[in-house]
Amino acid sequence: MIEIKDIVKSFGDNDVLKGISCELRQGETNLIIGGSGTGKSVLLKCTIGLVRPDSGSILYNGRSFYQSDKEGQQAIRREMGVLFQGGALFDSQTVHQNVQFPLDMLTSMPPDEKNDRVAFCLQRVGLENTGKLMPSEISGGMKKRVAIARAIVMNPKYLFCDEPNSGLDPLTGVKIDELIREITDEYKITTVVITHDMNSVMEIGDNVIFLYKGRKLWEGDNNAILHTDVKELKEFIFANKLLREMRD
Ligand SMILES: Nc1ncnc2c1ncn2[C@@H]1O[C@H](COP(=O)(O)OP(=O)(O)OP(=O)(O)O)[C@@H](O)[C@H]1O
């Protein structure tokens, strides 16, 4: 579990996060949703240690990242897998090399063990026998799968996904959501997904946190969200035509 407590972050006179607290639960897909510019990415960057909050604390299974020494921070970082927006694969490396990259950077695992681990992760995301291909030879959905395989290769306790569906057709997007959900459940990971996508909210929203202008306005699951009384959340949800028609 990750406990976010009263996080405040400003850039100059732009107060981006105005005191956000929430719990990101283990074995669940925790979705951070909200309109553009509401602070979702900044909150994610604070949570993965890329942006230091002005105040507040973030605890990873009880351990404070920002109050840990360098070694403690590295230990927590090693437990994080990150799926960056767009996948961020290295174009000049094969699928296998891309997935192996964190093992090369962060472990002294013997080569055979690395190969086995990479093969296992590729198989887990449904991409066995693709290791020799280059990223340019595979589809957008397959690239996301490779990026997921890379994010889980270190066996993370925490998985962060920034807009995992961006650039994918709806059906492929649903399959990626399902994969993230399955992996979360199977390995009991604390998964955090940033999204604008109401399909994802309805499919995998175990714990949904709605941000609006740097504050948390609502928190609940995907069953409760359609019955919200919060005006700003209703506007966000029912901007989606299909959901509006379902409601009416
Ligand atoms: N490094 C930075 N320096 C200055 N301002 C920043 C920085 N990073 C983010 N901001 C500002 O923080 C605010 C929130 O940005 P953020 O990227 O978190 O929004 P978001 O909710 O993720 O939006 P989107 O859905 O469009 O990605 C914006 O006003 C942005 O300009």
Automatic annotation (TrEMBL):
Alphabetical keyword list: ATP-binding, Nucleotide-binding, Transport
Transmembrane spans: none
SUPFAM superfamilies documented for this protein: P-loop containing nucleoside triphosphate hydrolases
ABC transporter domain mapped to chain residues: 2-238
GO molecular function terms listed in the Swiss-Prot or TrEMBL record: ATP binding; ATP hydrolysis activity
Cited InterPro entries: AAA+_ATPase (IPR003593), ABC_transporter-like_ATP-bd (IPR003439), ABC_transporter-like_CS (IPR017871), P-loop_NTPase (IPR027417)
PANTHER family the record matches: INTERMEMBRANE PHOSPHOLIPID TRANSPORT SYSTEM ATP-BINDING PROTEIN MLAF, PROTEIN TRIGALACTOSYLDIACYLGLYCEROL 3, CHLOROPLASTIC
Protein name stated in the entry: ATP-binding cassette domain-containing protein
Organism of origin: Salmonirosea aquatica
